[in-house]
Design brief:
By secondary structure, this protein is mostly beta strands. Helix content is 13%, strand content 39%. It has one domain. The protein has a six-stranded mixed β-sheet. A five-stranded antiparallel β-sheet has the order 4-5-11-10-6, with helices on one face. A hairpin with a 2-residue loop joins β10 (148-160) and β11. The chain is globular and about 40 Å long. The model has no long low-confidence stretch (mean pLDDT 86).
């Protein structure tokens, strides 16, 4: 999954085999990923879940977290992943000058015929379980955030007592 400012993501061409090879060949890590003249962050841990299902949680300070989780009690695993105070790896700064961040499949384009349609982020209850994605649910996510920069950190595959998770946090930098 690619996380980028909406203006940067529009220049992503993941449907192109050459670009997608860059995604597949990259080493695991929280790092900036060149997208046209800008940069985004690639997230996703195929060990936690191989279906790329990622939950996104917003905080009152404008930050957000993306979590992949698996466990017998999905809701408890998500809560435990969000409660961890520190990530293993710090990464780049994500610039979001437009005030809109998108989360899209890295295998699609950011605009044009091969782009994922974007669904607006909306508040909802904490997920109780992890159903398999609907085959027709081919949407990316559009998140309205305060325009600015975000410190990025991440935790890859991490075991819990009854599950596992991977988490990426995007915290607004102080003005």
């Amino acid at each position: 999954m690619l996380v980028a400012d909406s203006l940067v993501a529009a220049g992503w061409h993941g449907y192109d085999e050459t670009e997608y090879e860059r995604v597949i060949d990259r080493p695991q890590g929280v790092d900036a990923f060149a997208v046209g003249a800008g940069a985004g962050v690639l997230i996703g841990d195929g060990v936690v879940r191989d279906d790329s299902w990622i939950e996104v949680f917003a905080s009152s300070d404008g930050g957000f977290a993306a979590v992949q989780a698996a466990g017998a009690d999905y809701a408890a695993t998500l809560r435990a992943a969000l409660a961890v105070a520190q990530d293993y790896e710090t990464g780049p700064t994500l610039l979001a000058p437009s005030g809109t961040v998108v989360v899209i499949s890295s295998a699609s384009d950011g605009s044009g015929d091969d782009a994922q349609p974007l669904a607006p982020a909306r508040p909802g209850p904490d997920p109780r379980d992890h159903p398999w994605p609907d085959a027709g649910a081919e949407y990316g996510l559009s998140i309205e955030v305060p325009a600015g920069s975000y410190a990025v950190s991440g935790t890859w595959y991490t075991e819990l007592a009854d599950g596992c998770y991977a988490r990426w946090r995007f915290l607004p930098d102080a003005p």
